[in-house]
Amino acid sequence: KQVVLIGNSRGTFAIRNYICNGGGAQWVSHAILGGGPNHGVQAVPGLNDANEFSGAGPFLKQLNAPKNDKGDEVCGPTRWMTIRSDNNDKFAQPDGLWLGMKGRATLVNFDGPELKGATNVVIPKIDHRETSFSPAAFEASFKFITGVAPSNKITAQDQVDLNGKVFGLGVDPLNA
Length: 176
Known about the structure:
By secondary structure, the chain is of the alpha/beta class. Helix content is 19%, strand content 18%.
């Protein structure tokens, strides 16, 4: 009857917009947002305000507008979780170094991916992608959905075997 949506980075915008503005709340039981730049990668008024990654722009202002009298930034009966790094996500930095603005304040802090009203999880020392694709993120997501920790741990393979075709992005599988 309902689905769980899990997204990373920019994909979290589509999830939030669908649930809060597109009628998705009735269809989504849980939303898990890894490394979502929910308050922008920068929030400097007048700096690329039309860009979806601007915390000062209309898109994120609308998504982050309070949804109830508690000021929650999440909506509906959907249960929400964000996963972020403690300070290692390049898109949640107080200094604009990774945006080509070294030494300029972004007005976004390490907690930029968090949302008021969500379960906000901080995993130390992970990077932007690991907010969704690490064993720790899987464990947090599994527990959030089921209420219990997974019975098995994810372990890395000693050797990865690829046995399919590689294609796209100009790769010629016959000459690779």
